[in-house]
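DUF1232 domain-containing protein, Allomesorhizobium camelthorni. Tokens?
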Amino acid sequence: MFGGGNDNPENDVRARFWQTAKRAARQVPFMDEVVAAYYCALDSRTPLRAKGTLLAALAYFVLPADAIPDFILGLGFTDDVAVLTAAIATVKAHVTPAHRLAARRALAELD
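Tokens:
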């Protein structure tokens, strides 16, 4: 289902996240929260339900097959933004200051 050959969304997200994040950085206005959500999803202390919600949204973000293809300039990430916004809002209590700090550091390195 997720395209990595092993039906494990965490592995797919790990494998594709940074490549997609670099492409989307200028089009997604809250990329810092997306990266913080990535770190939250991979944190072993994150509750399973929150982790599952974030991994599903992040998998939708990184995988090429979605409602609006990401290569369509100006529109490509709009559906991804909607999915990510909903997922992050749902689990925001689990995104910690440590996740946000890691996100800021990682984004600084992308520049």
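Residues 9-110 form one domain.
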